[in-house]
Amino acid sequence: MAENLNCMVIDDEPLALSLLSDYISKMPNLTLVRAVSNPLAAISYLKIEEIDLIFLDMQMPELNGIDFLNLLQKKCMVIVTTAYSEYALDGYKYQVIDYLLKPITMARFIVAIEKAVERSKMNKALADATLSSGTINHIFIKTENRIIRIDLSDIYYFEGARDYVVIHTETETILTLQSMKSIQQSLPADQFIRVHKSYIIAFDKIRFIERGRISIKEKLIPVSETYKDNFFKRIGRDGI
């Protein structure tokens, strides 16, 4: 594991901070930049420091882990560390790399780090490919057991469905626990647009628009009031 990652630990328990700091110090490819007990302080530090990987406790008095993830603006990888197993599903909604249940062993810690290193390599490879080509022609999506590549030209639309997002392509449907917000941020704005809280569509797959609904692949997709003005402005129309 040659990839070097700058780390921050956020946990209100002194013993947990000490243990994770010790684990990090034993990994040659990890550098501990900050270990903080206050998540609000962590948000301030993240504005001035380059952090690749955050170890985040979920149950903290000032700000719980889910609220922290909602406030997180930087694209940092996150490993959840908590004594409460009920946070596992919530964590995966926010694209955490792994979920570690306390007490955390060194062996389990290493497994999580290997996942983070692989994700970091994948992200850098994607960024390099984008820079070299000048355009984005595919995205990587995390499914339950793997990360898969999907060509943008194959995607018709994304549909939010409770805890999942369903990706409708030319040949199949793919389920992911990634959020609509994170997916939208990864898509080129000249090719995709959000038209509803539950739908992101591909411009080139639109068949027709009628009575505020978009026809794509035999599906009529509603355009909500929130996104209507931006959508019709983008297609050069006042509305239908």
UniProtKB/TrEMBL annotation:
Tree of life domain: Bacteria
Molecular function via GO: DNA binding; phosphorelay response regulator activity
Span of domain HTH LytTR-type: 139-211
InterPro entries, sorted: CheY-like_superfamily, LytR-like, LytTR_DNA-bd_dom, Sig_transdc_resp-reg_receiver
Cytoplasm listed as a keyword: no
Pfam family, one: Response_reg
The Response regulatory domain, residue ranges: 6-117
Entry keyword annotation includes 4Fe-4S: no
Keywords linked to the UniProt accession: Phosphoprotein
Modified residues (4-aspartylphosphate): 57
PROSITE patterns in the record: HTH_LYTTR, RESPONSE_REGULATORY
UniProt protein name: LytTR family two component transcriptional regulator
